[in-house]
Amino acid sequence: MFRNIDKTGLSISALNILASVSFSYFLTGSLTNNTDALNLVANVFSILSGFLLLVITMSGENSTIMTNISALDAANQEKRFLMRFNKYYLLFLLYILTLALIFIFYLISKDKNNTSGLLVLVKTVVGHMIAFLTCFSFIQSTFIPLKIKELFREKRELNTK
């Protein structure tokens, strides 16, 4: 049962979570108290969303190449596409969630009249979520160029069959 576990991927994910928790714990104040930093995160994630859509499109394009492949290869290709699509769709949703949290943080930060404990708690939690998701999503995004390279190589192999 445990033989099929991707130990490298699991290790990278664990290190990413550890780095993101550390970033959130130590640097939330530096990020959320700096409007320019929040704007930079929003701009970078907007750009990364475009690259992510490219990867999803390329992955879908590869899955449509069905000439000269066996039924088993076609089934495996469909399975690979669904796994990739789900993985990158989740990353896309993390980008959108981070952008939405930045928007919410801006709104609650501008409310100077309400100083209730609940609003302070919500602001703190949202700030930590922004910091965690920023670090986590950014680290996950560093693998996008590798995925583009892999998709080009896969397309080349599919076209030579």
Explain this structure.
The protein has helices spanning 7-32, 35-63, 71-110, 117-141, 144-160. It has 161 residues and is an all-alpha fold. Helix 2 (35-63) runs antiparallel to helix 3 (71-110). The chain starts with 6 loop residues before the first helix and ends with a helix.
Quick overview of this protein structure:
The protein is mainly alpha-helical and 161 residues long. The chain contains five helices and no strands.
Shape: elongated
What's the SSE pattern?
HHHHH
Query: How many helical stretches?
Result: 5
Q: What distance separates the N and C termini?
A: 33 Å
Average residue-wise pLDDT: 87
What is the helix content? over 70%
Write the layout of secondary structure elements.
Elements: H1 7-32, H2 35-63, H3 71-110, H4 117-141, H5 144-160
What are the salient characteristics of this protein?
mainly alpha, 5 helices, 161 residues, elongated
